[in-house]
């Protein structure tokens, strides 16, 4: 079946029966809704853990790696967030599903390098959760190139993208980026800094657009500059999007998703026209 996410994500119908998904949640209503929806969409039989003890037993009883965990912040036996700490310490990718949220909590969650957080405060909560799970399970099909002359910036962006399960390549210069693109035609998204010593982001984008169109590669420009006109110049050079540092994690991931969603939609339309 085809699945169109709340945010516009298109899903071709791939099943994930081999994925091991743990749901650490004590609400019967939500565990039932999540189980039913994931089985319906992706043929996933989730493991339900209604307490911290259940979670520990579930991890210990099987040597099969946990693909992804969905966890409430507070569980019986772990009323102070111990379950989430447990999952993070085990390096298990985790989506937090919570009804309690405020700014300081959000900061604590993002500091733990979780995959995502979904709020239980609307009727679309389970569908949003399903979409987040689907993105994590399919992001490996996307190859992203990061171009930045700063090792720190490259490491930061790389870690963010790998957290979401993307395949990532890095280039320390515009010249190196051109080499990597030539050798890896499966790269669908490039995130490039503007200010680089050999080829700046504008010139790099112009050179790329001479042979690679937006139907093959999406380009997001980034900069720490306070010059608001940089975005206009970058878009005129052939870029698809532009962001100013420092990033907000949620906005960064949303922009990445939107550009890759657009790329898939364009490619799907071109295939349909070719067949017709």
UniProtKB/TrEMBL annotation:
Respond yes or no to whether keyword Transcription regulation is given for this record. Answer: yes
Q: Which Pfam families does this one have?
A: Response_reg
**Listed Gene3D superfamilies:** 3.40.50.2300
Q: Which residues carry this modification: 4-aspartylphosphate?
A: 193
* SUPFAM superfamilies per UniProt: CheY-like
**Keyword vocabulary terms for this entry:** Phosphoprotein, Transcription, Transcription regulation
InterPro entries associated with the record: Bact_response_regulator (IPR050595), CheY-like_superfamily (IPR011006), Sig_transdc_resp-reg_receiver (IPR001789)
Q: Where is the Response regulatory domain?
A: 20-135, 143-260
PANTHER family hit by this protein: RESPONSE REGULATORY DOMAIN-CONTAINING PROTEIN, STRESS RESPONSE REGULATOR PROTEIN 1
The entry's protein name is: Response regulator
Which organism does this record belong to?
A: Rhizobium beringeri
């Amino acid at each position: 079946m085809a699945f169109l996410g709340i945010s516009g994500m298109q899903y071709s119908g791939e099943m994930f029966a081999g994925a091991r998904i743990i749901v650490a949640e004590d609400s019967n209503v939500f565990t039932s809704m999540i189980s039913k929806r994931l089985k319906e969409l992706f043929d996933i039989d989730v493991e339900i853990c209604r307490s911290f003890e259940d979670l520990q037993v579930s991890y210990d009883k099987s040597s099969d790696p946990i693909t992804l965990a969905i966890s409430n912040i507070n569980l019986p036996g772990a009323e102070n967030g111990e379950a989430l700490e447990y999952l993070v310490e085990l390096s298990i990718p985790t989506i937090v599903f919570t009804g309690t949220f405020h700014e300081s909590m959000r900061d604590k969650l993002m500091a733990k390098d979780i995959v995502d957080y979904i709020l239980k405060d609307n009727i679309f909560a389970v569908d949003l959760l399903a979409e987040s799970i689907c993105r994590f399970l399919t992001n490996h099909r996307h190859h992203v190139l990061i171009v930045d002359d700063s090792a720190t910036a490259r490491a930061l962006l790389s870690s963010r993208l790998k957290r979401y399960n993307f395949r990532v390549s890095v280039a320390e210069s515009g010249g190196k980026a051109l080499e990597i693109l030539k050798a890896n035609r499966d790269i669908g998204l490039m995130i490039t800094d503007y200010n680089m010593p050999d080829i700046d982001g504008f010139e790099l984008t112009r050179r790329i657009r001479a042979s690679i169109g937006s139907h093959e590669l999406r380009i997001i420009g980034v900069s720490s500059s306070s010059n608001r006109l940089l975005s206009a110049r970058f878009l005129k050079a052939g870029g698809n999007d532009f962001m100013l540092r420092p990033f907000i994690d949620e906005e960064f991931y949303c922009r990445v998703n939107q550009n890759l969603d657009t790329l898939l939609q364009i490619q799907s339309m071109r295939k349909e026209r070719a067949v017709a």
